[in-house]
Amino acid sequence: MPPRREPSWALLVGSLVALCSVAPTPAHASCGLDQCPIDAAPTSSDAPAVALRSHTRVSAAAGATGAWYGETYVGALVLAPGSVRLGGSLPLVALSTPEGTVAGVGNAVVVVDWAVPVRSSTWRAAVGSQVELPTATDGDLGEAHLMVLPYGRVEALGSAFGFTVTAGWARTVAPGHGHSHGHDGTPLVNPHSDSELRLRGQAGWTRARGQDWLRLGPQIDVVQELVETRSTLVSAGPFLDIGTGRTTIRIRGELPLTEARRTDARVGLSLNVALGALHGEHHPSDSPGAP
Known about the structure:
- The protein is mainly beta and 291 residues long.
- It has one domain (7-284): monomeric porin ompg (Porin), CATH 2.40.160.40.
- It has 1 helix and 13 strands, in the order αβββββββββββββ.
- The protein has a 12-stranded antiparallel β-barrel with strand order 1-2-3-5-6-7-8-9-10-11-12-13.
- A hairpin with a 2-residue loop joins strand 3 and strand 4.
- It is globular and about 50 Å long.
- The two termini are 36 Å apart.
């Protein structure tokens, strides 16, 4: 069978990536690695389907005594024909500090993901781009800016072990301004720099029985800021996926490993439900990874 050609989708992905050529201006943004999840889309199955996604997490804000925030993301991912994935999520955020509490909607994120054709049952690859939109109802919950994150992803799959490596470049292309409770003028909710490289590595050991399975492993996130500070941030923690049929639950914890940090601790619980027709064998990694 000849390979499929999707010039229109390739043009769309290329257009999103091209936005990164716009020179950024100084600004403090508030979309962390997990609010713009660079492993948000799977690369398996070319049959149309929809995945409903929910993710709740609680974070202790770095450098601010008594400050923490909770987030609940609600979204969907459409697995379209031609190995194209379209998705988005909208977070509900609550920030608590000794001065008071702010709650509302955070910045929405949309994603276009294209699975690169690979003639292998073990390896998968994908490229795509994610865009953060200024939908926050309060400057403390998300800044009025546009941020683009083109990325690439490589996966190795096995019946008992697999790993995923994703790399992306995040750039603020339309900066805005918001309020801040941080001592250094940066937001407490998912702060980041105007330009930075992001790397995520994840390995998991899977135990399956019929349509039920467990996957356990570590995840590590590395951020290299490309601004004046040139800080390198590393965080890591374990995750546990519990799957049955088309439903996946993920539990994850995270701690910083470097002095430079954006949270002091983080825990999360995710739910993913796949809808529609999925042809072929379903592998645990077919369920979209939660942030």
